[in-house]
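During the reporting period, our protein records have gained a C-alpha cell line. One record among many is quoted in full directly below:
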Amino acid sequence: MIDPRLAVIEPRLSQVGRILAVTGGKGGIGKSLVSSTLAVALAAAGQRTGLLDLDFTGPCDHLVLGAEEGFPEEDFGILPQQVAGVLFMSMTAFDSQAPAPLRGPDVSNALIELLAITRWGELDTLVIDMPPGLGDMALDAVHLLPRAEYIVVASPARLVAETVRRSLRLLQRLDRQIVGVVENMSTAPDPTSPASDRTVADPVQTLAQEAGVPVLGSLPRDDGVEATIGQPAQLLETSFGRAVSALIPRIS
C-alpha cells in the first residue's frame, strides 16, 4: 500500500522557490553550522527563508538559532517557528531534550511525517540540514526531495575527502543537482577575507575537480563563533558568518 503522506509532500513545498540541501558525507564537519548560518544570511539579505533540520540523531540548528522551546502551532498542519527572520522546523520542536532513538522503518516514517505535516507557505529558499552520512535516512531524504539542489560541505582534512567523494558520486548517480562544494574549517591565512577570495586546500579542490562541480568558497575556522551560538545576528558578524554571507552570490 502506498503511504498517502507521500502525495502531500510536494504540495507542501509547492510555494518554495528553491530547496538548498546542505550535506557532507559524515558528521563533525560543520554541516549544521553552515546550514543555520546560511539560512540566517539569506534572510538578512531579504529572502523569505526556511530552515529544516533533518538531522534527527544530533539536531543542533535550534541551538545555533536560539529557538525557543514550545510545541509548534497547528493549523491544518504544523506551522514553523520564526527565529531571526527564518521559518524553522525540527524534531526538537516537539521535545528538544529527548533523543530520537529511531531505527529501520521508524526513521523513514518520522522523515515522511515531518515533511508531510510542515506548512512552509511562500518561501524564496528552504535550506535543509541533511542527515549525516550515507545511511538509510540520508538516502530517503534524497529520494523524497527530488528538486533539491545540493551544497556539499568538505574540510581540509584528507581523511574527510573520501566520504565527501562518495557523497558527490551518489548524488550524481541519482541525477541530483549539485550547486558546489564549500570548504569548512579552513586554516588558510587571512581568515577575514571573503569566502570567494580565500585559498582552498588541495584535497577539496581535487575532489571538486573530479566531480566536475565548482568550489563555492572557503569558510574559516573561527574561535569566535562559539560565543555567538544562540545569537544569530552576532553570528553573522564573525569572520565565519561574513564568509557564509559572501557565498550567497555564488549560490544564486
